[in-house]
Amino acid sequence: MLPGMALLIIDMQRDFLDPAGYIAKSGVDVSGLRAIIPKVRSLLSAARECGIPVIHTREGHRPDLSDLSAVKRRRAAGAGAPIGSVGPLGQLLVRGERGHAIVEELAPLEGEPVIDKPGFGAFYATDLELLLRTAGITSLTLAGVTTDICVHSTLREAVDRGFDCTTVGDACAAADPDIHAAMLACIAGEGNILGRVANTQEILAAWSGGISPL
What we know:
By secondary structure, the protein is an alpha/beta fold. The chain is built from nine helices and eight strands. Helix 4 (37-50) packs parallel to helix 9.
């Protein structure tokens, strides 16, 4: 076990990864997002084997949409995927619907916390920070989607709160590969200003050796 460390898996849910989900409804080809599932699964399995705490996040809103801002409502509707509208996986981006669930390959085990968030960053309007502080977590390894929005928003929130962070570049994805690459360059710029960028194999090797990837 590596004390003080946790794996944070961001928004690997059907609404973002399934061809019938929210992101696909907005016109995005989700094949590139789905492609990272095996990498994330490798991290998840290794974390469980090493006794590293795993935390999952999901973006979504209350069924009555009372936590949906007018700006976000308008943006989603303009992209062709109105939040709360009914699709093949139920109401888009709504908690409790099929689309809100994490994909089967990465389903949380009993006891693994799931943070339901109404925004892009996982610290916004959630108890994630309280959970981490209470558990003595000081460093985070981040994976998930999307690199440019939810992963990056969460990373910046974590860095501002004093957490050491490593982003697993090949276990994250954006709709546009060029944007993905640019975001990783942003993280690693100015002397790793937003933490280290590593690949899955580097993380697995560090964990198997009982050391931090930072």
